[in-house]
Structure formats: structure tokens, C-alpha cells
Amino acid sequence: MDNGEISLSDREFEAVRNKVYKLAGISMSDAKRTLVVSRLSKIVRKLNLSTFSDYIDFLDRNASPDDIQEFINALTTNLTRFYREDHHFDHLVEHVGQLLEDPKIKASKRLRFWSAGCSTGQEPYTIAMALYNAYPQLKSWDMRILATDIDTDVVRRAQTGIYKENDLAGLSPERSKFFEPLGNGDVQIPDFIRRAIAFKPLNLMHDWPMKGPFDAIFCRNVAIYFNKPTQERMFTRMGELLAPHGYLYIGHSENLNSVSEKFKLVGKTIYKPKSEPASRSAA
Ligand SMILES: C[S@@+](CC[C@H](N)C(=O)[O-])C[C@H]1O[C@@H](n2cnc3c(N)ncnc32)[C@H](O)[C@@H]1O
To answer: What are the residue boundaries of the CheR-type methyltransferase domain, all occurrences included (predicted)?
Structure first.
């Protein structure tokens, strides 16, 4: 192909699909074929290989963990934005307002949230900004947001807290008030907000090191890439990490019908755990 793209046979596409499923739980439809060609061709060329079969062979035999990670990073879809599906943040603010009245929580001053599949950070930063905006007293609380993603490139970018001014387009002055202009068309999330968030690479298909319980989990627009059994396993595990009073927020095109019996729907793409409470301990 003359645009630097390498042709991909049905067999090669199948092999790529199997690999990304095994590594990341991502189920790719036929519609992703063009995406695979455009994203992986660059890597194949960089490795001085000429076909996808050579690349798959390389991944099977000689690839380092970094090569495998590069393959995964290339195939993730990271679309996100600040205050995306903003009714979730209104709900969260109300939820935390109730927790602030809970004597036990008031005494511990401890809040824990998880943004699972956080991409470039807009989701966890929005959680923090919405909460600090509504409850400035949280600055002296032990509030922590764990933000994880399988894609190590987006996790690195998220950690900088640096975005383009354009990324704030459409946000009200109240919602954009925390961003600090850097004078070059970029803005940065202030230190006190960045300190509340721990960004970590984490493959949701692997073991999770954290114990919970979380006061809320955001796992939005991630499960759409997984098949039903994978979603079921993942959401069941999330249910185990949610506090009994916690909420699970999922993406606008996702639902837990026939995926998990462990949650009940309490709002638009907002769920509560049905069953056994997780005990409050270290997250
Ligand atoms: C479309 S983004 C969603 C970002 C954000 N949650 C939102 O709704 O705006 C999906 C993210 O899920 C991540 N992802 C896909 N498979 C994953 C896996 N197995 N483990 C962890 N993260 C994964 C991708 O890397 C990507 O950043």
C-alpha cells in the first residue's frame, strides 16, 4: 500500500484479534480492521518487518514486555473528556454530600474512589474537581482517587495533568476554574488536585492489588470492548470492592442486564451493590 500501510489478510487479522483478546480482554469486531492496519503498520515498519505475519511471529517469540505493551497501547481506544456524561458527577456530589453527614465517615475523614479505565485522566480529575468544587472542606480530608488503565501511554500523560486549552471547550467557568494556564496554550491541573489521584497502569483482566472498599467506582466506556463473560467477571469483582453504600457508574451505551445479578439499577447507568457489604479497611 502506498500510504505506508501494510496489507492485512483475514488470517493475520484473526491472529491480531486473538492476541488482543488474550492480553487485554478486548473483543474486536470486523469494523476494527482499518484501525488495526493504521495503528500497527507504523510499529511493523519500525521493527523493520514487512508483513503482519512477521509481526505476530515476533510477538509470539522474541518480543520484550515493552513490545507487548506497545501492541496493547496501539489498539486501545482512549476517547474521553472532562465532565463526560455529567449527570454522574451530579449524582456523585449528592452521594458524597450524604457521606459527609455519616458519623463514621465524618470521624475517619476518609473517601476512596476508583476510575477504572481512566484513559488520559479527564474522568478522575473531573471526580476530584466536582467534589472540591462542591465541598472545599475535602481539601483537609483523606480523599484518594485511584485511576488505572491498561495503556501505559495514557497513564503517563494523565500524570502530568497538562491539557490543551481546547480540551476545556464548552465547560462553564465554574467547571474550568481549577485549571492553571501555562501560557503556551496548555493548562494544568493544580497540585492539590493531582496529589489526590494515584495513576497506575492496571490490566482489568489481571489480579487487582487493591482491597477497597470504594465509595464509588467509575468504569465507563470500558466494558463495551469486552464480551459478556469478561464483563460479568469484571463487574462481579468490582461489586466485591464497593462499600455497601457505594455506587458503580458505567458508560452511556452499557448496562448490566444479563451481565451481573449483583447490582441494582438506581439511576441512568448508575448501580448499587445488592449483596454482601465489603468491610471498611485500607484501599
Ligand atoms: C474509551 S476510554 C474511556 C475513558 C473514560 N472512562 C471515559 O468514559 O471517558 C476506554 C479505556 O479503557 C482502557 N482499557 C481497555 N481495556 C482495558 C483493560 N483490559 N484493562 C484496563 N483498561 C482497559 C483503554 O486503554 C481506554 O483508555
So the answer is: 1-276
Superfamily per CATH, domain 87-273 = Vaccinia Virus protein VP39 (3.40.50.150)
* 87-273 shares the fold of 10-75: no
Ligand 1 atom closest to residue 226's alpha carbon, by position in its atom list? 16
Is 118 in a helix, a strand, or coil?
A: coil
233 is in an annotated binding site: no
Annotated active-site positions, please? 39, 149
| Residue of minimum CA distance from atom 19 in ligand 1 | 24
The span from the CA of 139 to the CA of 116, in Å, is 23
Domain boundary assignment for the chain? 10-75, 87-273
pTM for the full model? 0.94
Is 221 labeled as ligand-binding?
A: yes
Fold of 10-75: Chemotaxis Receptor Methyltransferase Cher; domain 1 (1.10.155)
Give me the tens of pLDDT residue by residue for the chain, a chain 283 residues long.
556 788 999 999 999 999 999 999 999 999 999 999 999 999 999 999 999 999 999 999 989 999 999 999 999 999 999 999 999 999 999 999 999 999 999 999 999 999 999 999 999 999 999 999 999 999 999 999 999 999 999 999 999 999 999 999 999 999 999 999 999 999 999 999 999 999 999 999 999 999 989 999 999 999 999 999 999 999 999 999 999 999 999 999 998 987 778 899 999 999 999 865 445 444 4
β-partners of residue 270 are 249, 267
CA 103–ligand 1 middle distance (angstroms): 35
**What ranges in the chain are assigned the alpha helix state H?**
10-24, 33-46, 52-61, 65-75, 87-99, 103-108, 122-134, 152-160, 173-176, 191-194, 228-241
As given in the structure block, the three cell numbers for residue 56 are 505476530
- Main-chain phi, psi angles of 79, to 5 degrees: -55, 130
Residue of 27, 120, 149, 237 with the most ligand 1 atoms within 8 Å of its CB, for mutation: 149
- CB within 6 Å of ligand 1 — which residues? 24-26, 76-80, 84, 117, 119, 123, 149-151, 154, 203-205, 220-222, 225, 251
Q: Is 174 annotated as belonging to a binding site? A: no
